[in-house]
Amino acid sequence: MTKDGVKIDPKRVEVINSIPLPRNKKEVQVFLGRINFLRRFIPSYAEIVRYITDMLKKGAEVKWSQESRKAFARIKASFAEAPVLARPDYSKTFLIFSFASPHTVAGVLLQKNQEGYEQPIAFFSHVLHNAELKYNILEKQAYALVKSLKAFRMYVLQSHITAYVPTTAVKDILIQGDSEGKRGRWIAKIQEYDLDIRPTKLIKGQGLAKILSESNHQALGINLSMIASEEPDKGEKPQGLEMAIQKIHVKYLTSPWYKEIVEYLLTLSCPPSCSKAKYRALRLKSQRYIVANGQLYWKDPSGILLLCLTESEVGNILMEFHEGIYGGHYSWRATAHKISKAGFYWHKLFGDVFIWVRACDKCQRFAEKQKSAALPLIPVHVNEPFQQWGIDFIGEIHPPSSGQHRWILTATD
To answer: Which of 128, 140, 152, 376 fits 132 for a cystine, CB–CB 3.0-4.6 Å?
Structure first.
């Protein structure tokens, strides 16, 4: 830790540079264990050491090819040239740039300094395995952002984030175009963050280009000179609701109940005039909603998707489930649960059903009288004998007693 930020201890760098070429898997594991702790200082760490980690796979042998020898020398040089990491300022916006290559995903967390240049706070990289390798390139780039957010979660969870992805197509994957399968899981994960996703062509990226151009930018599979020089087209319209409207039924966009929620789900952003408190509340509220096949769904605590109804549809549903063929003039609780079990939802479901059933003429005329609650018992406090008596009659008794008595008078002290 220095006044400029966090950097690697030079003694550690000397120790790493003195490590000889590993001869077996055990020595390879020892080498990777020593350098893995410092991976947050190295851009595209996973891509650099990929040829070394491949030696640890089942059935693989420790053979130092030309590529693996270059990787061994390159990772040592990367630690010697590692940048100084800035301290995070949680009052400022965090910037995340994420990228993907055929075998790895990577990300960098930055913040702008007083001069307006981006300074790195941490680097992240991950080697793809199994099914991850089968993703197409756009899905890998989207997956890179999801993994980067998870890696930087301790920094960015309570702060605003501007995330830059390589193309607009990657942003489309991470908004509510498809809520099924892996994309649905990715969307659910990123909704807990105060996130604004933008394509990299909309920024200059001066500091990022300087940082990554000195490292493994070819392994990341991007052209940083293009990022640094591209400017937004003056005549190009922003990718907002105009394109997103096609993904959902227009009834939700005109409904006061869902308009803001749908706009947030489709664009992952709020209008600039939206306050920070309202933005946070809307983001938390929207986590329960999902857009799929042009419809809006609400996810109940058990994970079941319920179709959201608009104001104009509620009346018909209440009629059918209380008085129609699906009903039977049940109580308001039973009616509300029948509606939810049938797969329908709106935010005032239980309240509206209660009012509807109470206003039903047939229920008021023919339903059984509701039992009144029992009156509370009041204990009697007596301080001395004969202070208070309780008197009652028992009878008339049939048959009478031998003395022809038909009544009994009881007195209780």
So the answer is: 128
* Rounded Cα gap, residues 126 and 45, in angstroms: 8
**pLDDT tens per residue across span 57-106:** 777 777 888 888 888 888 777 777 777 788 888 888 899 988 888 888 88
The domains of the chain are located at 1-83, 86-233, 244-299, 309-368
Chosen CATH of 1-83 out of 3.40.50.300, 3.30.70.270, 3.50.50.60, 3.40.50.720: 3.30.70.270
Give the architecture-level CATH label for domain 86-233.
Roll (3.10)
Please list, residue by residue across 212-251, b when 16 or more beta carbons sit within 10 angstroms of its beta carbon and e when fewer do: beebbbebbbbebeebbebeeeeeeeebeeeebeebbbeb
Both structure tokens of 85: 């990491």
List of residues 6+ apart from 175 with CB closer than 8 A: 187, 197, 244, 265, 266, 267, 268
Q: What's the pLDDT tens digit per position in 185-238?
A: 888 788 888 888 888 754 444 444 434 433 443 333 333 333 433 444 444 444
Indicate the DSSP class of residue 85. B
**CA 199/CA 163 separation, integer angstroms:** 8
